[in-house]
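User: Show me a protein chain along with its predicted structure.
Assistant: Here is one chain, sequence first, then C-alpha coordinates.
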Amino acid sequence: MLAGLSLPARAADPRPDATIKNRNVEANVYLDDKIKADAALADDCLTEGKAWIAKNAAEAAAARKSDPQFFKDGGWSFERRYSVRSVVDGHYISVLRDDYMDTHAAHPNTDVNTILWDSTARKRISIRPFFTETSDGGPTMKAMVSAVTTALNAEKNKRDAGETATAEWYKELRPTLLKIGAVTLAPSTVSGKSSGLTFHYPPYAVGPYAEGQYVAFVPWETLRSYLTPEGMKIFGGARPKGDEEEQ
Protein backbone atom coordinates (compact mmCIF):
# COMPACT_ATOMS: atom_id res chain seq x y z
CA MET A 1 0.00 0.00 0.00
CA LEU A 2 1.23 3.50 -0.76
CA ALA A 3 2.56 5.60 2.07
CA GLY A 4 -0.22 7.76 3.45
CA LEU A 5 -2.99 6.02 1.46
CA SER A 6 -6.09 5.74 3.61
CA LEU A 7 -8.78 3.21 2.82
CA PRO A 8 -12.57 3.43 2.72
CA ALA A 9 -14.48 2.84 5.93
CA ARG A 10 -14.42 -0.73 7.23
CA ALA A 11 -16.99 -2.53 9.33
CA ALA A 12 -14.98 -1.86 12.50
CA ASP A 13 -14.85 1.89 11.89
CA PRO A 14 -17.14 4.22 13.89
CA ARG A 15 -20.32 5.50 12.35
CA PRO A 16 -19.70 8.46 10.03
CA ASP A 17 -20.63 11.90 11.28
CA ALA A 18 -22.06 12.73 7.86
CA THR A 19 -22.85 10.40 4.98
CA ILE A 20 -24.40 10.15 1.53
CA LYS A 21 -25.07 6.76 -0.04
CA ASN A 22 -26.90 5.99 -3.26
CA ARG A 23 -26.28 4.12 -6.51
CA ASN A 24 -23.85 6.81 -7.67
CA VAL A 25 -21.72 7.39 -4.60
CA GLU A 26 -20.88 6.51 -1.03
CA ALA A 27 -19.30 9.46 0.78
CA ASN A 28 -18.53 9.69 4.48
CA VAL A 29 -17.08 12.26 6.88
CA TYR A 30 -15.49 11.33 10.21
CA LEU A 31 -14.48 13.59 13.11
CA ASP A 32 -12.14 12.24 15.77
CA ASP A 33 -13.09 12.49 19.45
CA LYS A 34 -10.73 15.41 20.15
CA ILE A 35 -12.47 17.48 17.52
CA LYS A 36 -15.89 16.55 18.85
CA ALA A 37 -14.78 17.80 22.28
CA ASP A 38 -14.69 21.36 20.85
CA ALA A 39 -18.24 22.13 19.72
CA ALA A 40 -17.30 25.13 17.56
CA LEU A 41 -14.48 23.26 15.82
CA ALA A 42 -16.67 20.21 15.28
CA ASP A 43 -19.41 22.35 13.74
CA ASP A 44 -16.90 24.10 11.48
CA CYS A 45 -15.41 20.83 10.22
CA LEU A 46 -18.77 19.13 9.81
CA THR A 47 -20.22 22.03 7.83
CA GLU A 48 -17.25 21.91 5.47
CA GLY A 49 -17.37 18.10 5.27
CA LYS A 50 -21.07 18.01 4.43
CA ALA A 51 -20.55 20.51 1.62
CA TRP A 52 -17.69 18.36 0.29
CA ILE A 53 -19.69 15.14 0.14
CA ALA A 54 -22.70 16.94 -1.37
CA LYS A 55 -20.45 18.36 -4.10
CA ASN A 56 -19.00 14.93 -4.86
CA ALA A 57 -22.45 13.34 -4.91
CA ALA A 58 -23.65 15.92 -7.43
CA GLU A 59 -20.61 15.36 -9.63
CA ALA A 60 -21.10 11.59 -9.47
CA ALA A 61 -24.74 11.92 -10.53
CA ALA A 62 -23.75 14.11 -13.46
CA ALA A 63 -20.94 11.75 -14.44
CA ARG A 64 -23.27 8.74 -14.50
CA LYS A 65 -25.47 10.55 -17.01
CA SER A 66 -22.63 11.59 -19.28
CA ASP A 67 -20.21 8.64 -18.80
CA PRO A 68 -22.10 5.62 -17.44
CA GLN A 69 -19.15 3.32 -18.22
CA PHE A 70 -17.36 4.68 -15.14
CA PHE A 71 -20.07 3.11 -12.96
CA LYS A 72 -20.15 -0.43 -14.36
CA ASP A 73 -18.31 -1.62 -11.22
CA GLY A 74 -20.47 0.38 -8.83
CA GLY A 75 -20.59 3.89 -7.47
CA TRP A 76 -17.74 6.21 -6.57
CA SER A 77 -16.30 6.27 -3.04
CA PHE A 78 -15.17 9.25 -0.97
CA GLU A 79 -14.00 9.56 2.60
CA ARG A 80 -12.85 12.55 4.63
CA ARG A 81 -11.33 12.30 8.12
CA TYR A 82 -10.61 15.21 10.44
CA SER A 83 -8.11 14.50 13.23
CA VAL A 84 -6.26 16.61 15.77
CA ARG A 85 -2.51 16.67 15.22
CA SER A 86 -1.50 18.93 18.11
CA VAL A 87 -2.79 21.38 20.71
CA VAL A 88 -0.37 24.22 21.46
CA ASP A 89 -0.61 26.79 24.26
CA GLY A 90 -3.99 25.33 25.17
CA HIS A 91 -5.87 26.87 22.26
CA TYR A 92 -4.03 26.51 18.94
CA ILE A 93 -5.37 23.27 17.47
CA SER A 94 -3.77 21.80 14.34
CA VAL A 95 -6.12 19.57 12.38
CA LEU A 96 -5.30 17.15 9.56
CA ARG A 97 -7.94 16.72 6.86
CA ASP A 98 -7.33 13.47 4.96
CA ASP A 99 -9.35 12.61 1.87
CA TYR A 100 -9.72 9.33 -0.04
CA MET A 101 -11.26 9.32 -3.53
CA ASP A 102 -12.09 6.43 -5.85
CA THR A 103 -13.77 7.43 -9.10
CA HIS A 104 -12.80 4.24 -10.94
CA ALA A 105 -9.91 5.96 -12.71
CA ALA A 106 -6.50 4.31 -13.06
CA HIS A 107 -6.19 4.16 -9.27
CA PRO A 108 -7.73 5.71 -6.14
CA ASN A 109 -6.13 8.88 -4.87
CA THR A 110 -5.66 10.74 -1.60
CA ASP A 111 -5.36 14.36 -0.59
CA VAL A 112 -4.30 16.10 2.60
CA ASN A 113 -4.95 19.58 3.91
CA THR A 114 -4.78 21.26 7.29
CA ILE A 115 -6.67 23.61 9.56
CA LEU A 116 -5.24 25.80 12.31
CA TRP A 117 -8.00 26.55 14.79
CA ASP A 118 -7.92 29.08 17.63
CA SER A 119 -10.34 27.73 20.22
CA THR A 120 -10.29 31.03 22.13
CA ALA A 121 -11.26 33.09 19.10
CA ARG A 122 -13.41 30.18 17.82
CA LYS A 123 -12.18 30.52 14.25
CA ARG A 124 -9.63 29.32 11.70
CA ILE A 125 -6.39 31.26 11.61
CA SER A 126 -3.06 31.13 9.76
CA ILE A 127 0.50 30.98 11.05
CA ARG A 128 0.99 34.68 10.26
CA PRO A 129 0.73 35.86 13.92
CA PHE A 130 3.81 33.80 14.78
CA PHE A 131 6.13 35.53 12.31
CA THR A 132 7.27 39.12 11.95
CA GLU A 133 6.45 39.11 8.24
CA THR A 134 5.08 36.56 5.79
CA SER A 135 4.98 38.58 2.57
CA ASP A 136 5.18 36.68 -0.71
CA GLY A 137 8.83 36.27 -1.62
CA GLY A 138 9.92 37.82 1.66
CA PRO A 139 12.76 36.59 3.89
CA THR A 140 10.54 34.42 6.11
CA MET A 141 8.91 32.59 3.24
CA LYS A 142 12.21 32.13 1.42
CA ALA A 143 13.70 30.62 4.58
CA MET A 144 10.70 28.29 4.89
CA VAL A 145 10.96 27.08 1.29
CA SER A 146 14.66 26.41 1.74
CA ALA A 147 14.05 24.46 4.96
CA VAL A 148 11.17 22.50 3.42
CA THR A 149 13.29 21.56 0.41
CA THR A 150 16.08 20.33 2.68
CA ALA A 151 13.60 18.24 4.69
CA LEU A 152 12.02 16.75 1.56
CA ASN A 153 15.42 15.85 0.13
CA ALA A 154 16.32 14.03 3.36
CA GLU A 155 13.03 12.13 3.36
CA LYS A 156 13.39 11.16 -0.29
CA ASN A 157 16.88 9.83 0.40
CA LYS A 158 15.47 7.70 3.22
CA ARG A 159 13.01 6.22 0.74
CA ASP A 160 15.67 5.70 -1.94
CA ALA A 161 13.78 8.21 -4.05
CA GLY A 162 16.57 10.74 -4.45
CA GLU A 163 16.12 10.80 -8.21
CA THR A 164 12.91 12.84 -7.74
CA ALA A 165 14.51 15.37 -5.36
CA THR A 166 14.62 17.84 -8.21
CA ALA A 167 13.59 21.38 -9.04
CA GLU A 168 11.05 19.96 -11.49
CA TRP A 169 9.16 18.15 -8.73
CA TYR A 170 9.46 21.13 -6.39
CA LYS A 171 8.43 23.76 -8.91
CA GLU A 172 5.06 24.30 -7.23
CA LEU A 173 6.72 25.12 -3.89
CA ARG A 174 6.85 28.89 -3.79
CA PRO A 175 7.69 31.42 -1.07
CA THR A 176 4.08 32.24 -0.24
CA LEU A 177 1.78 30.81 2.40
CA LEU A 178 -0.66 29.69 -0.30
CA LYS A 179 1.95 27.75 -2.29
CA ILE A 180 4.35 26.31 0.28
CA GLY A 181 2.11 23.45 1.43
CA ALA A 182 -0.48 22.61 4.08
CA VAL A 183 1.06 23.36 7.47
CA THR A 184 0.55 22.23 11.06
CA LEU A 185 2.19 23.01 14.39
CA ALA A 186 4.26 19.95 15.24
CA PRO A 187 3.97 18.50 18.76
CA SER A 188 6.90 18.94 21.15
CA THR A 189 8.72 17.17 23.96
CA VAL A 190 7.74 20.23 26.02
CA SER A 191 4.07 20.22 27.03
CA GLY A 192 2.03 23.00 25.43
CA LYS A 193 4.76 23.94 22.98
CA SER A 194 5.34 23.25 19.28
CA SER A 195 8.67 21.91 18.05
CA GLY A 196 8.26 23.54 14.64
CA LEU A 197 6.20 23.29 11.48
CA THR A 198 5.22 20.23 9.50
CA PHE A 199 4.23 20.63 5.85
CA HIS A 200 1.98 17.94 4.38
CA TYR A 201 1.96 16.95 0.70
CA PRO A 202 -0.38 14.52 -1.09
CA PRO A 203 0.71 12.21 -3.92
CA TYR A 204 1.85 14.11 -7.03
CA ALA A 205 2.57 17.33 -5.08
CA VAL A 206 6.33 16.83 -4.69
CA GLY A 207 6.80 13.37 -6.19
CA PRO A 208 5.11 10.72 -8.35
CA TYR A 209 2.04 8.85 -7.15
CA ALA A 210 4.06 5.75 -6.29
CA GLU A 211 5.97 7.68 -3.60
CA GLY A 212 2.77 8.49 -1.71
CA GLN A 213 2.46 11.41 0.69
CA TYR A 214 5.32 13.40 2.20
CA VAL A 215 5.71 15.29 5.46
CA ALA A 216 8.48 17.88 5.78
CA PHE A 217 9.45 18.97 9.30
CA VAL A 218 11.08 22.35 9.92
CA PRO A 219 12.44 22.81 13.48
CA TRP A 220 11.42 26.05 15.13
CA GLU A 221 15.05 27.02 15.70
CA THR A 222 15.52 27.27 11.93
CA LEU A 223 13.02 30.14 11.87
CA ARG A 224 13.85 31.67 15.26
CA SER A 225 15.02 35.01 13.83
CA TYR A 226 11.64 35.53 12.14
CA LEU A 227 9.41 34.86 15.17
CA THR A 228 7.14 37.40 16.85
CA PRO A 229 6.77 37.44 20.66
CA GLU A 230 3.75 35.14 20.22
CA GLY A 231 5.88 32.80 18.12
CA MET A 232 8.61 32.73 20.75
CA LYS A 233 5.94 31.93 23.31
CA ILE A 234 4.50 28.88 21.56
CA PHE A 235 7.62 27.27 20.11
CA GLY A 236 10.08 25.21 22.10
CA GLY A 237 11.45 21.74 22.72
CA ALA A 238 12.11 19.05 20.13
CA ARG A 239 10.00 16.86 17.89
CA PRO A 240 9.03 13.62 19.68
CA LYS A 241 10.50 10.54 18.04
CA GLY A 242 7.07 8.93 17.89
CA ASP A 243 5.70 11.82 15.86
CA GLU A 244 8.27 11.32 13.13
CA GLU A 245 7.46 7.62 12.99
CA GLU A 246 3.71 8.24 12.77
CA GLN A 247 4.06 10.85 10.05
